[in-house]
Amino acid sequence: MDSKNVSRRSFMKSAAVAGVAAQALPLFNVRAQGAGRKFKVGLVGCGGRGNGALGNFLEAIKLIGAEAEVVAVSDVFKDKAVNTGKKFNVPEARCFDTFDGYRKILALPVDILILATAPGFRPLHLEAAVAAGKHVFMEKPVAVDPPGARRCMAAGEVAKQKGLTIVAGTQRRHQEGYLKMEQALKAGLLGTVTGGRISWCGGALWVRPRAEGQDDAHYLANNWGNFVGMSGDHICEQHVHNIDVANWVIGKPPVSAVGFGGRARRETGDQFDFFSLDLDYGNELHIHSMCRQVNGCYGGVWEQFVATKSTFWGGGKMATLDGKKIEVPEIKMVSGNPYVQEHVDLLNSIIGNKGLNETQNVATSTLSAIMGRIAAYTGELVRWSDLMEKKDSPFYNMACTPAADDFEKGPVVAPPDDVIAVPGSGEKKKPAKKQAAKKGK
Ligand SMILES: NC(=O)c1ccc[n+]([C@@H]2O[C@H](COP(=O)([O-])OP(=O)(O)OC[C@H]3O[C@@H](n4cnc5c(N)ncnc54)[C@H](O)[C@@H]3O)[C@@H](O)[C@H]2O)c1
């Protein structure tokens, strides 16, 4: 039985009316999927999400009745690696603290690698995991620049050939409401999407100032959410979720992006605080994309679409234009928590040899976000073909430095703090505090 067809919630509901004997069947079926299986897992990146993802993985293991061993963990800060190790019973000798820690994990007998570092390292780590024949759960976004996104796509193809399972942390694709929306779309109940708008507007993220004597490599790895080469900027790091939903419902990435952004409040790093973009999907279909990280302003994380037969919200309300009720069959999940369900789907794919591989989806959405960022940074209209086909385009190889591979070769130099892209100039500068205006009479 497919995991998505066994709902814990509906199991509970039916159990209440049908009694214990009836309960046993679905539970038995869910459990049977993992019975007798033991998975060995490693984690790279022992921060908030790394610990969270490992916990979610172990919950999924329980739900399917399998067993797991956390073999090794890695973080470039010893204390973080060791603390996570203690939490998940990993001996200190297998809590690695170097930039090549992922290679040390890959040399051990692990089945699955969880990748939850700063996004800039994702293409390198994914490529190595796939080369080593490991299944992967990787957090979004999966790159910070066009070469990195293409590198992920290539690794995803190798994974396909090897029959490996790769699941990404774009958890909306494992969430009941969004899956219902997908079903309604596929059944033609919503019509064809003709436009929409997507938002990730919220407050400022954290700033992690440089510790005394800290080298550039560790400063970047720690304060990663403020450097474009580490996070891809927040359009990529957070708003990728919403862009992924737009690409999902439309069925392809934007043809081009044009728009703007700026920086008013950030203290460190080289990112913008806000973006507003027109994503052109061709055939007069446009999505307005906006994202902001500034305190004290409007906040909202959502996707809304207009279609020939309906208007609908990502994962939520769907309403036909003629008022007809939209009915889709119940989607039964093993877990109501998409952060757990994504690991259930990962494990079931491995057990059933299904080769679930989300690399192209997440890499395409990541590259769509990067396209928007380049458009805002440069002030130019940027086409998908600039990033995927035209090798002579100035954007094709627009790579961030230092590159992930550089961190293993020796000391790296961090980009200067508070120096940002200036649209229209082709340069990076300190943000102007005042704008020179034309003098009027
Ligand atoms: N799916 C979601 O909803 C969701 C939510 C939060 C974060 N995330 C993603 O998870 C990832 C991690 O975010 P976080 O909130 O846990 O950040 P975090 O800063 O709490 O954790 C990242 C950890 O990675 C470590 N690290 C950085 N570079 C490394 C390297 N090369 N090798 C080993 N360790 C390294 C850092 O020291 C840090 O401990 C990001 O990609 C983020 O976008 C996803």
Report on this structure.
The chain is α/β, with parallel strands linked by helices. The chain has a domain at 3-173 and 335-362: Rossmann fold (3-Layer(aba) Sandwich). The protein is 36% helix and 19% strand. Strands 13-12-11-7-10-9-8-14 form an 8-stranded mixed sheet. A 6-stranded parallel sheet has the order 3-2-1-4-5-6, with helices on both faces. Strand 5, helix 7 and strand 6 form a beta-alpha-beta unit. Helix 1 packs antiparallel against helix 2 (20-32), helix 3 (48-63) packs across helix 13 and helix 7 packs antiparallel against helix 14 (359-378). The model is unreliable at 1-28 (pLDDT under 50). Bound molecules: nicotinamide-adenine-dinucleotide. Nicotinamide-adenine-dinucleotide is lined by residues 44-50, 74-77, 80, 99, 101, 116-119, 121, 139-140, 169, 171, 221-222, 237.
| Ligands (ions, cofactors included) | nicotinamide-adenine-dinucleotide
Percent of residues in helical segments? 25-40%
For the largest beta sheet, what order do the strands appear in spatially? 13-12-11-7-10-9-8-14
Uncertain segments of ≥5 residues (pLDDT<50)? Answer: 1-28
Mean pLDDT reading: 91
The CATH superfamily of the domain at 3-173 and 335-362 appears as: NAD(P)-binding Rossmann-like Domain
CATH secondary-structure class of the domain at 3-173 and 335-362: Alpha Beta
CATH architecture of the domain at 3-173 and 335-362: 3-Layer(aba) Sandwich
Structural class: alpha/beta
The CATH topology of the domain at 3-173 and 335-362 turns out to be: Rossmann fold
> Major sheet, described briefly?
8 strands, mixed
Cα radius of gyration in angstroms:
23 Å
Distance between the termini: 77 Å
Strand residue content: 15-25%
Count of separate DSSP helical elements: 15
Total beta-strand segments: 16
- Principal-axis shape equals globular
